[in-house]
Amino acid sequence: MRLFTQLYTELDETNRTGEKVAALVRYFAAAPAADAAWALYFLTGQRFKRVMSATLLRTWVAEEAGLPRWLVEESYDAVGDVAETLALLLPEQGDGSDLPLHRIVEERIAPLRTLDEAGQRALVTRTWAEMTTPQRFVWHKLITGSFRVGVGRTLVVRALAQVAGIDPAVMAHRIMGAWEPTAADFRALLDPDTQQADHSQPYPFYLAYPLEGAVESLGPRDAWQIEWKWDGIRAQVIKRQGDVLVWTRGEDLVTDSYPEMQALGAVLPDGVVLDGELLVWQEGAPLPFNVLQQRLGRKQISARLLKEAPVILMTYDLLEVAGADLRALPLAARRARLEQLAATLPADAAFALSPIVAAPAWEAVAALREASRERGAEGFMLKRLASSYGVGRVKGDWWKWKIDPFTVDAVMIYAQRGHGRRASLYTDYTFGVWEGDELTPIAKAYSGLTDEEIRQVDAFVRGHTTERFGPVRAVKPELVFELAFEGIQASSRHKSGIALRFPRMARWRRDKQPADADTLATLQSLLESVSR
Fold it and tell me: Which residue of the set 20, 49, 141, 229 is catalytic?
């Protein structure tokens, strides 16, 4: 536990990529395989479902530390993270636990699932007595199902590849598979001679960077393949050894949720992997993402839902044919093979070939991009014809060129403290627009401001609070912000009757008064226009 806690602390205390990778390399090179396997499990986003109630932990901490429960709650309100709050409130007792991470999992976490409340408390308090404050913090994260640290899968892959002495692309593919957090599986991941044997394993997804400069800076137009960027769920459809599997970019196996993809797999030749976007598609056009949301997480799909929200795979790429990995081929060659495969599929298959945009010059491409919303698209994907299919997000060959977001001017009406490093500042805001003489809430947002702007808004909140509702403060409606968002949809769950997709603060409109903010009628008109 000492090594893993040290790793967590090092990762949490730096934003520098090189320092994070170095910390990971040191850990994986030094940790026993049984511990490293569990560390990899947690660092790649896997976690236990909550095995302990945070409410019980708060009560026990109050009693163990001799504190009133209200003080625990006030401390949490100030710190913003329950795991950290409880670790800080407990008195230091020992020099720290020497139990390795795999034994912490086996002896201190797994048993919590089956013990009664008295048994849970005995095990928890015993563990508290052995651990230092940083160790308790990490342990609380693990047992409450809230373990997260600021390191992406790509950095973990890079560190593991460095320790193993193999190509990062090979390592990325290995950890996409069905490995278990055991010493044997971890050793196999690092073994240069390990062969891929799991036929259900997807390939790591290749991702695009947002295009920031002028599109002309990419060079000759004819060096690029241009496709529409759709708002769906990125997925790979795999047909191997007669099995059909559907994996999302988030590494969720969702085959059961999409019987249309199982039917598609039935007409695919064996040894094929397709990369594309799951979209609800009717009459030759995509339906909004909120329609697709009705399909998410469902194991059983009703006949009504299949009819109202039929899903296709808008196919971008062909990664494997007859069991042969095609990723090293240039995009132009993979596209040609994909078109050949598409020609063999029945017309009623839940399959569409991503159309290539035909425009002779960048000026014409830019003009077409302005019509993206009319097609139900978000803009363009720009892919270099000579590019291989990479791993993760790599600058240079694949870019996403999205259209400008929708915007609305809204008034801040509520504020709440943030979490982690922002726990002492009011950084999470609720915004409203005018409905007659009243401000109706339409969205919450917490990103988009500079650190200095956050400090200024925090000071405003503290000096202009009108009411308190637990951790939420109502404030004088004086600050106007321009909110950017990607989409708008009707919602019965919201008082306004609408929901905004990915709202964030584009800028603080210091030049506007609250009366200048937009109205709910404006947003309703926008909703009607995009719903046609």
Answer: 229
